[in-house]
Request: fold
Amino acid sequence: MRLYAIAVYLFLYAPIGIIILFSFNAGRHASDFRGFSVKWYGKALDNPFVMDALTTSLTVAFTTAVLASLMGTMAALALQRVQGRLRALYDGVIYIAIMIPGIVIGIATLIALVTAFNFLNPLLASAWPGGKPPRLNMGYASLIGAHTMFTMALVIVIVRTRIAGMDRTLIEASTDLYATPWRTFRQVTLPQIFPAILAGFLLSFTFSFDDFIIAFFVAGSESTLPIYVFSSIRRGVTPEINAIGTMVLGVSLSLLVAAQFLLRMKARQARAAG
Amino acid sequence: MSQPSDVEFVNVTKRFGDIVAVDHVSLSVERGAFFSFLGPSGCGKTTSLRMIAGFDQPTEGDVRLSGESVVGTPPYKRPVNMVFQHYALFPHLNVGDNIGYGLRQRTPQPPRAEIEKQVSETLELVRLSGYENRRIWELSGGQQQRVALARALINHPTVLLLDEPLAALDRKLRREMQIELQTLQREVGITFILVTHDQEEALSMSDTICIMHDGRIVQTGSPTQLYDEPINRYVADFVGKSNFFEGKVVEADGQGARIETPAGRTFAGRNPRDAASLQAGAAAVLAVRPEIIFVGSPGAGAPYDADVEAPAVIRNRIFLGEQTEYLVEAEGLGEVLVRAPKHAETQTGGFNPGDQVVIGWQAAAALALEDA
Ligand SMILES: Nc1ncnc2c1ncn2[C@@H]1O[C@H](COP(=O)(O)OP(=O)(O)OP(=O)(O)O)[C@@H](O)[C@H]1O
Ligand SMILES: [Mg+2]
Reply:
């Protein structure tokens, strides 16, 4: 039994361990360790293509996280007021959105957008008053849109859980103490749910930053870091790729740990106060 | 009524769907009074309080504060503050910021120094000086209770509402806080409206108690009135302990009635309210408080001219410190609860289960009441 567990963990983590190890390889071949060095990190960060892809990824991830946490929080707050069957319907739709495989979202978004663009572009061209008409195309906007759609559902679930765990009488206490509904929201509700919003932000960021499948379909001519890695691998795995992978892993893990910490801390505080 | 009233209910009804939580309640609370809603769980006490605070709106009828109707006025516009059952202190704010919360909502906002000054004065009032920077979860239950009280009192509301404020405290602390609350109320002169299902608490603190049952008011009066002149069996049972002997009215006049039990004994009782329902033939009860019944050795003679006397056997003895409670089996009466004060037991040394005794009472101290 123990052996079996060890085998499973080895199987899961050994490849990741090897990537990390070989990212510090002094030699130039991925499978041949020639001593310790960080030169590939420098190389990766000097590569304009890598930097380009990284900029795209960061921009998309940040915008996605901002939009998803804003809209997700608003949706979670609004859903509080919905009761009964309609509520069950919304809940169902949100959970389905989380469970749909990325590849389906990718293809569906692609088809939907292409259809829409094919319909809109001629209209736009004919309505444009002279000059070269703009063409709607895949790119930043479609990437951000697809990622936001998916991660917003995550934010809704996280924030809703926090709202449900919140003491309702706190809000009554605040209105009883002369605070208007808006002030109550700012001074009581928001501070109470803020850690959950931040956690949702970090998770959205991580998801968008790491995502390959959806991005592959809707990125158009843009290249995110995962797409860059995928396309360079076809030219062979270099320690530079390993270095990029390790950096991505480091960033993602620390964001996830931060999000977990925020959610835990809040639960602990609530228990201590209750 | 000499004082103007602070809170008035005019025929207030509150329904939640099919449930009638408050049923045609009319009442008036005098300015500066300590008023209590007392009743069993689910009788509509909290709902009544919430309608004063503004969290719930009456389905029918009118709620008035200082003579003005407040139906439809949101809670943040009412000059009323509430102490919640579980305190509802803001966990993300420290003690000082919790207490200053109400002042910070004012427009224009008072200067910071002014708020700090008032916070520290209010903390002194609830005997928590220097606790400004403590976190809420570092406080004990009693301290949290006081912070909740301070957070409400700092606003000098017209009316302070308290929903079972002491229910979460242990017995000894509860007793202390009862005295503190009462003293505080006299000091600040604000009308207090308390909700409780603890009759001892209501009796010891209030000027006026309103006894509720199933959303209706059964009786409103001072603690003494409720204890000495309950209008029916429900009130007599809820306020203090009583022995009840059921029967039928054989004759009644303005002063009292004679009640015949199924066993064939007739007892006289005073009727405090000249109840119209006490007509000959109607069902009624004789209520006898355990402390007005004497218990003595057979042949030793009654301490006073007893109108009712019966031989009895001690079944159980409960030592309560300042007095002793006996459960006795009396001939023709069944089980009777008797309370003997310490001074009455100094000679006899008290009784033990199995002892033969005599019990009795004076008719003037017994009550003939409606059986409701
Ligand atoms: N928001 C609500 N929705 C539906 N029913 C309610 C609501 N609030 C109260 N009730 C019902 O109204 C009745 C009175 O409730 P209320 O809370 O006023 O009782 P209470 O006297 O305070 O009881 P307790 O001593 O248990 O607190 C109960 O039957 C309760 O179930
Ligand atoms: Mg209640």
